[in-house]
Amino acid sequence: MRHVVFAVALIMAGWRADALAAQTLHVDCSSQVANADGSLQRPLNRLEQLNAMRLMPGTRVLFKRGMTCHGSFKPPAGSSGKPGAPIVVDAYGDLSLGRPIIAAGCSAAQSDPDQSQTEAHKTANGISPYHSLCKADDGVVRPAALHLMNSEHWEINSLELSNDGLAEAGRVGLLVQLEDFGVGHHYRINDVYVHHVRGYLQDAPGRELAYKETGGILFTVTRLLERPGSKQKKTSFDDVVIENSEIYQVDGIGVSNRSAWMCRQRGAPCGDFAPYKGNADYMKAAGTQAASDFFPSTGIAIRHNKIHNIGGDGLIVRTAVAPKVVANLLYDIWMRAPGNSAGAWAINTDDALFEYNEVYGVRHREEIEPGDGMAFDADMGTRNTRFHANYSHDNAGGMMLFCACGRDGLGNRATTEGVLVESNLSVNDGRRAIMMAGVDTALVKDNLIVAHGATPLIENADFKSPNAVELHGNQFVNTSNQGVMYRTKNKEGSYTAMVWRENSFHGYPAGTRADGKAAALVERWFAATGFRENSYKGSSPQAQ
């Protein structure tokens, strides 16, 4: 009956329920006003009301500060803005009351505004179990607190999103999804706080979602409805900016983009995504032409975000050209997932830039040998990835991973080529500084690596792929004067493809002693790179 009354109210207000003219809609889920029409005086008070409207270019959706909406904000597919007239989501009301909240998960939850309750349950090392704030769960799993489907030209600001639960499920905080759409343009995520999203921590037979499709903020291109003989339209994102936001206590990943249009020769494994997952015959059929699928997203920028207490990976860019990952702060990563995870990395992507990021506290699971747990990774199918002026410290698995460590699903070895690791700082990273799991060509240049114990510089895990790296002009310092050059995972592992040129060693065999050198060199690095001026402004005390 309430839906009938609301529909009548819309008609009386001159609206059409299927497509509304551009206007400002106010949402206050604490309001008890009758005949809600979206005005400031009679705001919408249920997300179901908002989800019934196909929003038009120029529409502004304003949520009231200090209140909570339970459920999911999912406008109808086709609710799109246009160039110069995006759909804008923002907050209104008393600034002291904080962001408006959309809680997709628990019907009743504890409040933890300063994160103290959750942090009190965090372990210092090893596995740190997910801490739910749920007091009651209505049994409904909603895919996301905010879910855009086949929409473009959106700007989302100043929201708090959660999707908690008493058990793991297919949950995301903010989900933007395209399928059979073409190119979706112009997405802005700014000043959004995503927290307590209880997604999956590992894959399992029969699940619709991979665990890396759950977590904090996800931009995904799917082909779920494609069937053999009727290929969908190639689809991707263009002009995506995620900035000034915080992602906290989420499983399985912090921030990522994904695409099912990712197959190419020597790229990442094609069979990981529908429609090819579990359907190898379709992928290999001549008429499918899977090798020509690659349709990368463009214009992706992920900058000035704080990402912490993440079950699996912190930040991943996939199937993209020239994404920019700049001035993010990531810590307490790989807290729970049983499978390998790292801080910030690229896969199946060309010309990615990682710059002025700080990553620390990535954990390592000793039962996984050799295991990830490093700050950065150039993974399968990457070309010309650049890591410049980043600060990696206190990561249990080291600073850097090269991983041409699989096959493309089309019969070829995956490639990792043209990697440049330049002018970065590593301090007290564990197990090894650099992990070699396959790379075709890479230059590691002008970095400063400071170790405090018998931590090897290089570990080699042999995956039957080359480890062709040139190390040039780096400074290696071991303050214990007990530095170790190599750790070999597999006895057949080889370092013969590595070239060393004009590096300096302090505290290593055949080098000078490191006594008193580290502090001055570290300070010189901060000054030379401008890291303090260009990094996330809430970085660790040493970086500031």
Could you describe the 3D structure shown?
With 544 residues, this protein is mainly beta. It has six helices and 43 strands. The strands form five sheets. The protein has a 15-stranded parallel beta sheet that branches. Strands 3-5-10-13-16-19-23-26-30-34-37-40-43 form a 13-stranded parallel beta sheet, covered by helices on one side. Strands 8-11-14-17-20-24-27-31-35-38-41 form an eleven-stranded parallel beta sheet, with no helix packed on it. Strand 1 (24-27), helix 2 and strand 2 (60-64) form a beta-alpha-beta unit. It is globular, with a radius of gyration of 24 Å. The N and C termini lie far apart (58 Å). The model is unreliable at 1-18 (pLDDT under 50). Keywords: Signal. Residues 1-21 form the signal peptide. InterPro entries: PbH1, Pectin_lyas_fold, Pectin_lyase_fold/virulence.
Keywords:
globular, 6 helices, single chain, signal, disordered N terminus, Pectin_lyas_fold, PbH1, mainly beta, Pectin_lyase_fold/virulence, 544 residues
Percent in helix: under 10%
Instruction: Report strand %.
Output: 25-35%
Shape: globular
Mean pLDDT: 92
Number of helices: 6
Parts with pLDDT < 50 across at least 5 consecutive residues: 1-18
The span between the termini is: 58 Å
The radius of gyration over CA amounts to: 24 Å
Main beta-sheet strand count, sense and barrel state = 15 strands, parallel
User: Structural class of the secondary elements?
Assistant: mainly beta
Strands, count: 43
Signal peptide: 1-21
Keywords: Signal
In short:
Helices cover 8% and strands 35% of the residues. The chain has 6 helices and 43 strands. The strands form 5 sheets. The chain has a 15-stranded parallel beta sheet that branches. Strands 3-5-10-13-16-19-23-26-30-34-37-40-43 form a 13-stranded parallel beta sheet, with helices on one face.
